[in-house]
Amino acid sequence: MKKVITAIIVTMLLAIPAVALNTGVPRQSGDGLAQGARTLEVSFNYQRQQGPGSNQYAVWIENEKGEVVKTLFVTSFTTKGRVRGNEQPMRGYIKRPACVPTWVKAAKANDLTDQQLDAVTGATPQASGTQTFTWDFTDQQGKAVQKGTYKVFVEATLFNASTITYSGTFSTQTKAGNVALTSQLTEPDEKHKDMLTDVKATLQ
Fold first, then answer.
1. Residue 137 CA from chain centroid, whole number
2. Cα(40)–Cα(201) distance, rounded to whole angstroms?
3. Distance (Å, rounded) from C-alpha 172 to C-alpha 35?
4. CA–CA gap between residue 179 and residue 193 (Å, rounded)
5. If you ran DSSP here, which 8-state letter would residue 83 be given?
6. Quick one: pLDDT at residue 101?
7. Reduced to 3 states, what is the DSSP secondary structure of residue 4?
8. pTM above 0.90, yes or no
9. CB 54 within 8 A of CB 92
């Protein structure tokens, strides 16, 4: 009889750690339910426009102070311009001030070296299609940013002075999901309005 009682007591004691572990606190798993998102994906449908004065866009992230944390992409003409014949090299946003002016001002492009601009510049797509960019919560130097609130921007020069800017605020601690975006258009342009459509920002 004593042996039976002893066995029951031992069994109960062994069960205590298992019960203690069940505290009701969600585990830090990779399902996104107990932790914030790890990346922000920005995408849109790009329709290449005919002629000069269009097809320029930029994608970037700002912190709560309105400082550019990282430029994910800016089209090459904006930063490098285009040299023809005996022309002197000139940055595109200087030659055409309508080239993504919001990004130029926010990024303080005039203070950046050619090398710094090269690091965020990409060729303007020659064909229409979906463009996708991913922010991994790092700054321009590749260092992880502090947890907090940030704002994503997508700006496009539709044609000359007609630009449209999409923006949305989010937190790095927010769970996976879509970021609500608003848009601001400087001047209507029916002919080039479809240059950028279906703009999305998604925390993943």
1. 9
2. 7
3. 10
4. 22
5. -
6. 98
7. helix
8. no
9. no
